[in-house]
Write a structure and sequence with these properties.
This protein is of the alpha/beta class. About 25% of the residues lie in helices and about 30% in strands. It contains ten helices and 18 strands. The strands form four sheets. Strands 6-5-4-3-2-1-18 form a seven-stranded mixed β-sheet. Helix 7 packs across helix 9 and helix 9 packs parallel to helix 10. The radius of gyration is 21 Å and the shape is globular. Homodimer. Pfam families: Anti-Pycsar_Apyc1 (PF23023), Lactamase_B_2 (PF12706). This is Ribonuclease Z. Zinc phosphodiesterase, which displays some tRNA 3'-processing endonuclease activity. Probably involved in tRNA maturation, by removing a 3'-trailer from precursor tRNA.
C-alpha cells in the first residue's frame, strides 16, 4: 500500500445519493492522516474503507455547510471511544460556535485533546508541530467563509552512492553529511553535500472545496502533485455554479492546467447528475487539462503520483 494516498470516503455535495455519501477525504501521508471535510456518514464510510480514527491526526474543515462537517461529532466521539488522546483541528474562525456545537454535540466520555487552529485572514500558516510538511490555508470565494488547504513537503536531497564511494564517505558519516552539509573524509578532504547529492523536490497536495474561481484557487493548486478539487457542476450549468459559489468540471481542469498539476481528482458532485454523467466530468476537465484526471468514487484510493524527475546533472 502506498504511504501517500487519498482515501475517498464520500463524493456527493449537499445531498447524499444512493451511490455517493456526503463529502469526506482522508489523506494518508507517511504515517500522518489528514481528514478533510467529514460529512454525515463519514464514520461508517471509514469502516468500509478499512481505515479508523487512529489514522486521523488532523481534521481540516473548509467551511461549516453541513455536507462538510456533520460527520465531526461521530469522528470525535469515536476517537474517545477508541482511545485516541490527541488530534488537531483547523476550521474558519468565523464559525467557531459551530465547531463547538459539533465538537460537543452529545454526552460522551471525552478523553481526546484537540488542539484547535481557527483560521482567519486571507492566508493562514498552521503550526504542524513536528510533522514533515507545512500546511497553509487560503480564503476562497463562497457564500460563507471558506478556506482551501495546501500541504507542502520541504525539499530534500537524494544521495548518490557512486559519489559517496568515490570520496570514501560511508556509514555514520553519510548521516552527518546530510545533517551538517559537510564532513571530513578519511583522507582529510572536506566533502560537501552538493558533491554527493541532488535536490529532491518536496511533494505538494491541495484540497479545494466550495468556491468560485478566484486567485487563491490557482495559488493553492500551483505545482501540486495531487489536486483534490470540487467539480459540483458540468460546464453547461456554469450559471448555477457561479450563483451558488461552485466550480464546474472544465473550470477545475483549467485550474489544474494553469497550475501544472500532476494528478487531478474531481469530487463533490451535485445530486442532479446520474452515474452515466461521470464520463462527461472527466471529458470536460480533460478538454483543458492534459494530465491525469480521476473522477472520484466513494471508497476508491488515489495514490499520490511518484516524484517528478529532475533534469540530469
Amino acid at each position: 500500500m502506498s504511504n501517500r494516498e487519498l482515501v475517498v470516503l464520500g463524493t456527493s455535495s449537499a445531498v447524499p445519493t444512493r451511490h455517493r455519501n456526503h463529502n469526506g477525504h482522508l489523506l494518508r501521508w507517511d504515517g500522518y492522516g489528514l481528514l478533510f471535510d467529514p460529512g454525515e456518514g463519514t464514520q461508517r464510510q471509514m469502516i468500509h474503507a478499512g481505515v479508523g480514527v487512529h489514522d486521523v491526526g488532523w481534521i481540516c474543515l473548509t467551511h461549516f455547510h453541513g455536507d462538510h462537517c456533520l460527520g465531526v461529532p461521530g469522528i470525535v466521539q469515536r476517537m474517545s471511544r477508541d482511545g485516541v488522546t490527541e488530534a488537531d483541528a483547523a476550521f474558519p474562525a468565523s464559525g467557531e460556535r459551530y465547531w463547538e456545537r459539533l465538537r460537543h454535540a452529545t454526552v460522551f466520555h471525552d478523553v481526546v485533546r484537540i488542539r484547535e487552529h481557527p483560521l482567519s485572514g486571507p492566508v493562514a500558516e498552521l503550526d504542524t508541530g513536528g510533522a514533515p510538511f507545512a500546511l497553509t490555508a487560503r480564503r476562497l470565494d463562497h457564500p460563507v467563509e471558506a478556506y482551501g488547504y495546501r500541504l507542502t513537503e520541504p525539499d530534500g536531497v537524494t544521495m548518490l552512492p557512486d559519489e559517496l564511494a568515490a570520496r570514501g564517505v560511508r556509514g555514520p558519516d553519510i548521516g552527518r553529511l546530510q545533517r551538517d552539509g559537510r564532513v571530513t573524509a578519511p583522507d582529510g578532504r572536506t566533502v560537501t553535500l552538493a558533491e554527493c547529492g541532488v535536490r529532491r523536490p518536496g511533494q505538494k497536495m491541495a484540497f479545494v472545496m466550495d468556491t468560485r474561481l478566484c486567485d487563491p484557487v490557482f495559488e493553492l493548486a500551483d505545482g501540486t502533485d495531487l489536486l483534490v478539487i470540487e467539480s459540483t457542476y458540468l460546464d453547461e450549468d456554469a450559471g448555477l455554479a457561479r450563483d451558488h459559489g461552485h466550480l464546474t468540471a472544465g473550470q477545475a481542469g483549467r485550474v489544474a492546467s494553469e497550475g501544472g498539476v500532476a494528478r487531478l481528482v474531481l469530487t463533490h458532485f451535485s445530486e442532479r447528475y446520474r452515474a452515466e454523467d461521470e464520463e462527461r466530468f472527466a471529458a470536460q476537465a480533460a478538454a483543458v487539462f492534459g494530465g491525469d484526471v480521476v473522477v472520484a468514487r466513494d471508497l476508491c484510493r488515489v495514490p499520490v503520483p511518484p516524484r517528478r524527475a529532475l533534469p540530469a546533472r
